[in-house]
Fold this sequence. Notes:
It comes from Shinella zoogloeoides (Crabtreella saccharophila). The protein has helices spanning 22-32, 49-60, and strands at 2-5, 8-14, 39-44, 63-70, 73-79.
Amino acid sequence: MTQAGAEGEAEVYDLRGLKCPLPVMKARKRLSAMPAGASLWVETTDPLAVIDIPHFCHEDGHVLEASERVEAGHRFLIRKSA
């Protein structure tokens, strides 16, 4: 699934209902299969994701372009590094 936005096309990855560390592990695996510069929206209900996802992006060199609180949790826009 993709979503158009200012960043272009971004795939949406629904990880709602999963608890730490699964959102980061699954996001890392999905991003590894994507080309450099691709964007991925990660949707999660895990309250620790607001700490884990930014840390994961920093550690792996990806760009966290957006972090939004939504009704059911949080969503993050990640741009894959080279």
